[in-house]
Amino acid sequence: MEKKKGGRKSWHVSTLVRRALNSKSDDSYWGCVRELHWRGNIEVFQAAKKYCNSSKVRERCFGAEVLAQLGVTERPFRKETLQIFHKLLKTEASAKVLYSVLVAISHSQESKDVRGTKIIAGFRCHPSKDVRYGVAFALAGRKNSISVSTLIYLSRDKSPDVRDWATFGLGALIELDTPAIRKALFNRLDDSDGDTRGEAMVGLARRKDPRVKSFIILEIERKNETAYNYVYDAAEEFGDKKLISLVERQL
Fold first, then answer.
1. What architecture is the 1-108 domain classified under in CATH?
2. What pTM did the predictor assign?
3. Does the CA dihedral 229-231-237-239 come out positive or negative?
4. Rg from Cα positions in the chain
5. What is the pLDDT of residues 56-105, one digit of tens each?
6. Residue 233: how many other CB atoms lie within 10 Å
7. What spatial distance separates the first Cα and last Cα of the chain, rounded to whole Å?
8. Tell me, what's the pLDDT at 4?
9. Can you give 40-104 as a three-state secondary structure string?
10. Looking at residue 34, what DSSP letter applies?
């Protein structure tokens, strides 16, 4: 019988897998998954690969979530993992699994992998907002034309969460400055979602776009405490001392 008194670090891989799949709480589930990430050996890789081929949605999600950061920084099975993910994206029907795979890819995808980027971008119109969010998450921070155009498209998505992450990916995660990116960010300055508006402000302020100043002032006048960090960051990025002083006085 396995001794479990030492906690997760002393558990066998099979115990961690069983505990994760039978877990009733997120904390317990992700605690086991993180421990498997740190193990990062061939035994864990083979187990996760097997579950990616399972007939059960929960098990396929689990397999993808283990492979997502297997080996943490060293990532010894990165190439094999991407092959598994790309195969899943071609055959998977479950939105839950697609979401797990897309988020997992964000930790492994090579920015120069045009084929892989095209596969991901192909889900930008998926009916599930979670899948579209996964696309934004997977491509955020990538500067290639396919990623940027896909994020611009998703910055207009009907889901505020998708718009928020796509706008964040365009505005804060890349330094690239093009008319198309500025236009996409400017179009979100009057967004109904406060986080999306904030990310657009910060993104334009980082690019020293003079049009953003009046929107920063408008956001100050709303006296919305939850927007304070966005407004302050935008003022600092814009580099206007008077604007920073105004933010400090009004919020």
1. Alpha Horseshoe (1.25)
2. 0.91
3. negative
4. 21
5. 999 999 999 999 999 998 899 999 999 999 999 999 999 999 999 999 99
6. 18
7. 60
8. 45
9. CCHHHHHHHHHHHCCCCHHHHHHHHHHHHCCCCCCCCCHHHHHHHHHHHHHHCCCHHHHHHHHHH
10. H
